Amino acid sequence: MKNDLDFGFIDTVRCISMIGIVFEHSSINVSYTDIISTLVSMIFLLAFKFVTIVFFMIAGFLLHHKFREYSSIQYLKNRISNTFKPWSFWVAILIVLNILYLVYSIGLNAVFKSFDTFTIILFSEIYNTVFLTSFWFIPNFLLCICILLSFKKVLYSCWLGFFFLILTLFYCVNIYTGWVLASHSGALLGFVFYFWLGAYINKHYSRISSHIKKCSYTRLIIINVFLFITSLAESYFLFTTGSDQVFNVLKFTNILYSLGMFVLLIKIGKINWLSVNLLPRKTTFGIYLVHWIFVVYLTGLVFKPFHLVFDEYNVYQNIGWSILRFLTVYLSSFFIVKMLISSKFKWVFGIRI
């Protein structure tokens, strides 16, 4: 019998999810005046919008195994040590870089004009880094873990899952109503359902995967293309209303698209080339931690000599530049992580020395 972690699709999901996350954060998003350019841009930007939800689902999927291996307290301690500490380190790095950039931009005296001024700048940088960059994922991830640990005795109850689903649907509606902060990075309880669902799928994996394996690739691809088109339609509708949540991952249609893609990834299973060459088990977390810094500073350094003005380019030119930015960020992140995990500094990615 296979080991609990011997699920072929896990490495594939890790790899594609991280590629998608870096792709999203590297892409250029500007407004266009004609419908065709707007739709082409949306198709390009929405293609990987399934990865955030899928990433939460795979985290929950792995949680099921860990709950059986460790006690709740042991597991939480391990998560804090292996996840929160490295996250804190890279958050601090980005905050320091941002403050140094401010000093470079507006001058040392302006930043350190007074204790109050510096305090305001510091707390502003902390807030922006934790909640408005890719670093928002880990606090939300740890919150999801704490919530599921609180319900450990009834973790696999469908009623519990239904309750979490209601929370997610609240955020779907909130995109239109604005009752609370609409951004998905501010949806503190919006991702618990996917965490729970991943754990639930793991518990019933044999039965669920057997049904998925019976489905043809043609049927699954057609379903996902249809779900993607519905997500595109909802995004375009939001665009026509002037909403700033056009690409929110908690759109109802994007949720369906994400679930459909998760099913397709289970069907695909393990892609050996990805596992062997991109080392997802070793590099995924590290790429997540460093890639935003590269998005902000490396792409600026590399592309600065080109004097790019993206607002003046057409959609196809911006897609080309987006792909180049993605390759720059992903490959740089991958190689720096691969280098550090083989050194005594691997602790900065949560790998024990």
Description:
Residues 1-5 have low confidence and may be disordered. It contains 15 helices and no strands. Helices cover 73% and strands 0% of the residues. It has helices spanning 9-26, 35-46, 51-69, 72-106, 108-111, 115-132, 137-150, 158-177, 192-203, 205-214, 217-240, 252-268, 272-277, 280-303, 315-340. The protein starts with 8 loop residues before the first helix and ends in a 13-residue tail after the last helix. It is globular and about 65 Å long. α1 packs parallel to α14, α11 packs antiparallel against α12 and α14 packs across α15. By secondary structure, it is mainly alpha-helical.
Radius of gyration: 21 Å
Task: Find the count of extended strands (DSSP E, 2+ residues).
Answer: 0
Strand content: under 5%
Quaternary class: single chain
Taking all residues together, what is the mean pLDDT?
Answer: 92
Helix content: over 70%
H/I helix tally? 15
Which descriptor suits the 3D outline?
A: globular
Q: Main beta sheet, described?
A: none
The residue ranges in which pLDDT falls below 50 over 5 or more consecutive positions are 1-5
CA(first)-CA(last) distance: 32 Å
Topology as a string of helices (H) and strands (E) = HHHHHHHHHHHHHHH
Structural class by secondary-structure content:
mainly alpha
Question: Notable features of this structure?
Answer:
353 residues; mainly alpha; 0% strand; globular; disordered N terminus
Topology:
Elements: H1 9-26, H2 35-46, H3 51-69, H4 72-106, H5 108-111, H6 115-132, H7 137-150, H8 158-177, H9 192-203, H10 205-214, H11 217-240, H12 252-268, H13 272-277, H14 280-303, H15 315-340
Helix pairs in contact: 1-3, 1-12, 1-14, 1-15, 2-11, 3-9, 3-12, 4-6, 4-7, 8-9, 11-12, 14-15
